[in-house]
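Data availability (excerpt). The following record was deposited with the supplementary files.
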Amino acid sequence: MVNKKRLVWLTQNLIRINSENPPGNERKIAEFVSGYLSRFGIRGRIIEFKKKRSNVLAYLKGRTSQTILLTPHLDTVCAGKNWRHDPFAARISGDKIYGLGATDCKGNLACAIEAINSLVEDKKTPEMSLVFAATADEECGSGAGLIPLLEKGIIKPDYALVLDSDEFNIIITQKGLIHLKVKIEGRRSHGAYPWRGINAIAIAVKILSELSGQKARAASNKYLRPPTINFGTIRGGDKVNVVADWCEFELDFRFLPGTKDSSILAGLEKTVSKYAKDYRIEINDIQDPYFIKADHSLVAGFDSAMRRRGIRGKIKGSEGATVITFFQKKDIPAISVGFGSSGCAHTADEFARISNLYKGAQILEDFLWKGLDS
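Predicted structure:
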């Protein structure tokens, strides 16, 4: 049986361990998690792909040969300023635990550990064999965490349950993203004789103006808003009385399932080349969009577990990137779920509701025990 007092204590202790990313150092929290798992007979293996960027792996044999991955992350964003509550004190006020990572994602991490603890304690063998992976570096791209775990074949689950959502939402789809930088070269001249030069900033303005007026063609998705483009940064020129011979700007494209990144890049190339003769496009990151059908057994199984506990979660899409996209390349069905509080992630005075975490741990235990066909 899920122990509420134990769950609260665990959540508080996880919050009190600083795992801000950047700078990125999950070793202390990974050692705590591994040690805590050993208390109830589960061996936690620590794996690092970069120094002090620690991941914890653990296993629990099931009644079938199929495997399901349960994966929260260990790191948090930086605390930042403007907190009224100490971000590492894990103070309780009423039904809320305040602290950095309470919602994203240490409350979910605590729920996962407590659900496993309860299964072991009650001698309940889960339906599918469980792979538990508490990962590093989720807040900065997962290059030291989930990505190498999958790419190196260290984990090969049949299904994946990502614990990185809130309010009992089931995330089944998300937008893809492209982050890139466009560098424009012009020709320098005196500011009093601008016709002698080629102003790279003026060229960039024309490109951005055209991009802002373009409407992306994409099939609609009832779980997601239309595609977007954000002008993130722009820099250029050296001095007010010098014609700028350089300008660079960064773009953030978010696109729907069914759209290929190559078509977006081809369209951008066409627009940039219309105005600039000397330019370079540098790709910083591309993540594919993701979609799993709402009637998939993984979705239905988790939804059933919630309903048995009196919770009616919402099937939703994510406008932002989550790690579920990494499972697509390996043909692993994945959804993201979680029990934090809406609007709290990455904010000052972040909190999670104790009642939600308690119910969430119960749902996880029930789902793992009964499986997809429950």
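Summary of structural features: The domain at 176-287 is CATH 3.30.70.360 (Alpha-Beta Plaits).
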